[in-house]
Design goal:
The chain has about 80 residues and is an alpha+beta fold. About 35% of the residues lie in helices and about 20% in strands. A two-stranded parallel ribbon has the order 1-2.
C-alpha cells in the first residue's frame, strides 16, 4: 500500500531470489508523498525479476481506503 523502493545512491537491490513470489502493489494516484510513478517503478522492478505482480491504482492521496482493504483481502485469498 503506497509503497516504493528506497532511493539510495549506490544501493543495488537483487529481487531475483524472490522470482515467482506474488506481490500486491497498491498506488494512490494522487499521492504526493510516495508518488504513483515510484509505486509503478517498484512493481516494474519486481515483475522484471520474475515476481507475480498485481498492481492497482486508487483515486486517493497517501492514505488507505476500504476499497484497498477489500482488494487486498481478495488478493490474499486468491494466493492462499
Amino acid at each position: 500500500m503506497c509503497c516504493a523502493l528506497p532511493e539510495v545512491t549506490g544501493l543495488e537491490l537483487d529481487f531475483a531470489p524472490g522470482a515467482g513470489t506474488p506481490a500486491l502493489i497498491q498506488v494512490g494516484e494522487r499521492d504526493q508523498i510516495i508518488t504513483p510513478d515510484r509505486g509503478r517503478a517498484a512493481a516494474a522492478a519486481l515483475a522484471a525479476a520474475g515476481w507475480h505482480v498485481t498492481e492497482r491504482g486508487y483515486d486517493m492521496a497517501h492514505s488507505q481506503t476500504i476499497e484497498m482493504m477489500i482488494d487486498a483481502r481478495g488478493w490474499l485469498a486468491a494466493i492462499a
